[in-house]
Design a protein that fits this description.
With 266 residues, the chain is an alpha/beta fold. It has 9 helices and 8 strands. An 8-stranded mixed beta sheet has the order 1-2-4-3-5-6-7-8, with helices on both faces. It is globular and about 55 Å long.
Amino acid sequence: MLVSVLAFALAVRPPRIPIDLRPADVGLAVEEQTIRTADGLQLAAWVATRPGRPALILLHGYPANKRDLLPLAAVLHRQFTVLLVDHRYFGQSEGSVTTLGYRERDDLKRAVDVLEARGLGPVGVFGYSFGGAVALLTAAEDPRIRAVASVAAFADLRVLGRDLYAGLWLLREPLVGLMRVWSRLFLGADITRPSPEQAARRLAIPVLLMHSRADEEIPFHHAERLARALAGNPRAQIVFADEGYHGALGAQVQERLARFFLESLH
């Protein structure tokens, strides 16, 4: 019980990764933007506008922050308005915990509200790892999101928990079950549901799913689950690489993302 409580606490309050990169370092001029969540938190964001062009929301991974996506934002800004957001708890955003996608769905909807209020759109969402899971979850609920690109996302928190505890054999299932108990007790909901896999089954919009078979953080079978969930969507594109570490966003990936959003948000 003690181990499970400590593991849950670490999962929702992980050490934050410091990233020493500024917009000016990648030649990006941004405005500070504050996004207020449904439960009263203030999320820190940067927006770089490109009038008359579609808008992209960029969602970082866990436990990083929006600075991690500045190189990608600089590339995409050549053709799009870009909005980079710190998830709750991370970066400069408020929040005492991350809910691993559960409340972040509503946070993303509030980010879409901000773009809509400024007359910027149509809107697409790019998400890396944790951010990709949030993008899939939210797109299934908000029709204003016209396209999603997800790189190295997990398919299901319960499955990810089983991966994490794989070496504990008989303790694995009890630890995953207790994770759900603690989330109900401390966060007021089973944060493992809905899952990105369940959300993906409901998507009919353009989706670009990318993952490496060599991913050392999110096992490749998560990508396979998401691909099967998207099998009924004729507008889904699946790109699997044989090599590459977790969420590598090299020049070829950046170009593929730009092409996907240009085609999807016309």
